[in-house]
User: What shape does this take?
Amino acid sequence: MSGLPSIEITIYPYDCDAYGHVNQAAYLLLFERARWDALARGPGQDLFRRNGVWPAVRRATIDYQAAAYPGDVLRIDSEVQKLGGSSLEMRQRATRVTDEALVAELQILFVMINDAGKPTAMPPEVAAAFGGRPSARPGELVRHDVGEVTLAVDTRGDGPALLLIHGFPLDHSLWAHQVATVARWRRIAPDLRGAGASDAPATGYSMSVYADDLARLLDRLHVERAVVVGLSMGGYIAFEMLRRHRQRFLGLVLVDTRADADGPEQRKGRDDMIELARSKGATAVAERLVPRLLGRSTQQTQPDIVEQVKAMVARTPVPGLVGALGAMRDRPDSTSLLAGIDVPTLVVVGAEDEVTPPSAARVMAAAIPSAALTAIPGAGHLAPLEAPTSVTRVIAEFLEALPKP
Ligand code: MLT
Assistant: This one.
């Protein structure tokens, strides 16, 4: 069978009808049980859930070949016959192991549907599990439709969810080390709308829109609650998620961010930057911003990180830059929210961060009941990239100490 192992199933008396027969309904259940068992031994029974799809049966036909009785052990082999863009046709054969007699065959057609019950594209991991194209390689992005836009998302691992929200003007690759190495958590690192490989509509950017996109992404991934990690603008979005989607939080990690809103000078700075983005494009924004984003030590000793961040900023679509700048300029003050944060919280700041400096992080951490604060030596505003192992370690330690969800 393509992708799934053979499964042996014993027929029990309760599988049979009043006449002791395995009837059509019972065969449907036996074949289904074999599929779930096969998934459990391979990609996991949450294969569909974690990919945000459900295999809906569109057609199923049973062919009886020989009688089977309670106590018989059937070997169920499954073979994928057709793998379409959103459909999967499979044949399952039940063979009695004692005499190798074929007792029944099932021909079944599935269509992948989304939350709205609409046919949707087969995610690469699902296709791979059934022998199709290879699953998302580590780092390969899967696109998720969250309503108005499609977000590109790097999702890895199993366990409770860790949602990693990047800052401005960056993308999911800011979290490359954390996504690759935080074990026993399902790491979800999206590109926000207007960033990286996600859709970049011309208008429609605000903290509430970003927050709602992410809540819908969690819905699509069937994640009820997550530890939400936000860097800088990602932190502003995390505050907005707290306002709008409080029930989705298992915990909160605020990295290189602040709670207060822009003052008049910063607002003017946002407008100037919008002007620069519109007139000279993303490369000019990268030249202007990158020296502020990275710490002194990184600029002196990690030229590859400097180049990586420049490239990341330079590939941000201009509508995404303009939209995010406007959203940050107009964001509400979140200071009054801090005292009411009642989920475990960690505040992390690069010791050389000049955009959201350690002094701001200290004030913020002090205002959040029982928040811990960690400063990362040698890192600036993009601590997860500049000092990846230190940031991963402090996040992992925080996650370890959380009550098990
Ligand atoms: C960010 O890293 O998201 C931005 O620097 C935040 C800001 O400019 O306020």
The pocket of D-malate is lined by residues 167-168, 232-233, 328, 355, 381 (CB under 6 Å). The chain has a mean pLDDT of 92. DSSP finds 15 helices and 13 strands in the chain. The first strand starts at residue 7 and ends at 10.
